[in-house]
Amino acid sequence: MARRATAYSGQVAQAERVVKRTRVELKAGVAGDNVAVPISLVDRGRGDPRNILGVIVNRDLDTDQYIIAVKAGVLHGQYSRNQFDLCSQRLLTLDDVNKENQVSLRTVVRAQSARGERGFLKCNCSGARKCKTNHCKCFKAKVRSHSR
Predict the structure, then answer these.
(1) What integer pLDDT is reported at residue 147 of this predicted model?
(2) Same domain? 36 vs 103
(3) For residue 22, is it within any domain?
(4) Do the beta carbons of residue 88 and residue 46 sit within 8 Å?
(5) How far is CA 136 from CA 78, 125, 129, 140, 143, in A?
(6) Are 119 and 45 in contact (CB under 8 A)?
(7) Structural domain that includes position 35
């Protein structure tokens, strides 16, 4: 029984150290701070940025959760401090973002993507002459054909 109590107290002490270190490394954000929210590999294309820029709108002090808004609207859900990075410069203000509608991160990434939904199209046709039917992805999407 003494070993279990010692093991339990050791785990509690380790958890307290981790929480303390996290609070020192991850400074708390306030309303108006710019943040970079990472975009998962599944939601972005190869040519799309890795982060999306947003602004902290509100912080719930009880749960330490943040509400983040981007130009398209307020992101669904609340974010904990380890899910975004604080930016040192103020590139966006609260007036630059839309606080009226709620949007998901995936729809914001799709709207801001340069190449559409998930990146680049590849066609398996053997040359540009063959890309003239709806069987070809490039022809269907009305994009110039490429083989890579």
Answers:
(1) 46
(2) yes
(3) no
(4) no
(5) 41, 7, 11, 6, 10
(6) yes
(7) 28-116
Query: Looking at the structure, do residues 42 and 107 belong to the same domain, yes or no?
Result: yes
List C-alpha distances in Å: 101 to 43, 57, 97, 104, 133.
Answer: 21, 13, 10, 10, 40
For 64-81, the pLDDT digits (tens) are: 899 999 998 999 999 988
CA 115 to chain centre: 18
In the chain, how many H helices and how many E strands?
3, 6
37, 83 Cβ separation under 8 angstroms? yes
Q: Give residue 46's region: left, alpha or beta (phi > 0; psi -120 to 50).
A: alpha
- Rounded Cα distance between 51 and 146, Å, is 28
- pLDDT tens across 11-33, in order? 999 999 988 887 777 888 888 89
**Choice between 62 and 136, residue whose per-residue pLDDT is larger:** 62
Number of structural domains found in the chain: 2
φ/ψ bin of 142: left (φ > 0), alpha (ψ from -120 to 50), beta (otherwise): left
Q: Which residues neighbour 114 within 8 Å (Cβ) at sequence distance 6 or greater?
A: 47, 48
Same domain, 88 and 137: no
Compute the distance between CA of residue 44 and CA of residue 113 in angstroms, rounded to an integer.
8
